[in-house]
Amino acid sequence: MKIKHFLLFLTAFTLLTVSCDDDNENEGNGGSIPEGALPSKEFSPNSLNDEPYAESAVKYVTQGEDNAPFQSIEFLPDGHYLMMADKGLFAKSGKVSVAVSGNRLNIAKRGNRLAIKPATTRSGDETVSFGKGNEYGTYTKSGDNKYVLSSGAVLEIIEETGSNSTISYLDRNGIISTVYVNTAEKTVDDATRSLCRTWNINSIEFWGYVNSAYMAYVKQTISNGKAKTEIKFSPNFDEELEMDDFIDVDSEAAYQVVFTSYGTYIVSYLDGETELALWNWTDKSQGILHYEDNKGYDYDYDWLGECTVRFAGKQMRIYEDYTDIEGGLTCRIIGVNTLTAKH
After folding, report:
1. Coil, strand or helix: which one is 286?
2. pTM for this structure?
C-alpha cells in the first residue's frame, strides 16, 4: 500500500532510510509512543479573532464563460488572493510511499509533492505565477466594490443580484473584460472557521517504528527564516550513518500554510516556491480532514490522505499516523506539525 503524508508534504525531508535489525526489534524505546505524539480524543474549535481582511473575503466563480480572464478568484481574509484560470492545473499528484526493501525502511517522495507542482515565478510585486493565468498575490480594497491586485489588475463589482454579480476586470495589460460570476458558498461552521486562516509553521516532528521498535526521531524547527533539523537514531543504527544520509536539511522547508474555507490550501517555502492543493473534512466532529482530494481523478495507488487537527489558543497541531506492512515487517510513522496563527 502506498501512503501520502501531509507531514512530508510540508517538510524538506526527501528521504528517510532506517535500517532495521529483526533480532533486536525490542531495543530502542520498546515501541512506546511519546506523550503528545498522538491527538487528544476530544476535538474543540478555537476562538481566534478574525484576520484583517475577513469582511472582504469571498470567492467568485465565472458562469461557464470559456473566454473569461479567470475561472475563479478567492479573496482570502489575510489579504491574499488566489486566481485560477486553468482548471486543468489540478492534476494527478505525486505520492509519498512507505516501503521496505530488505532490512531497510524507506519513506520517500515519489514524483511531485502536490496536486499542483508547476514552475512558479515571483515578480517584484510579490505575485506568484503558476502559469496559464493562475496566480497568487496580495490585494487591497478600494471602497466597497473594488479590489486592487498586486499584479496590477483591478476587479470592480458593477452590479450584484443575490449570489450573481457582474464585474469589470482590468488586467495588467490594460484590457477590460466584463465577467458574470456567482458567489461561491462559504462554509462558516466553527471547525472550518478555526482551521481556515494563515498559519506559521513552528516545527515538524516524526517518529519511525519497525515491528513496534523505535528506529528514529526527526525534528525540523523553522525560525527567523531558517530551518534547523535534528535526528536521533535508536541504538540499532550503524554509528557511521549521518543526518545527510537520511534527509535533505537545506532545501524546500515550508514556513507557512493557508487553509481556505473553499477547500484550497497554499504552502510557502523558504526557497521562494509556493504550492497549493485541495482539502475537505472527512469527519468534522473529530477534526479529521482529507487533503489533496482531486475530484475527477482516479489514483492508481491506495492512499489515506487523512490527518487530525487539534487547537489550543493560537496554536494548531496536525497529526498523522500511518502503518504499512510489507515483507513481513510492520512499519509505522507518527508525525506532528505545530503551527501558530499569523494573525
Report:
1. helix
2. 0.82
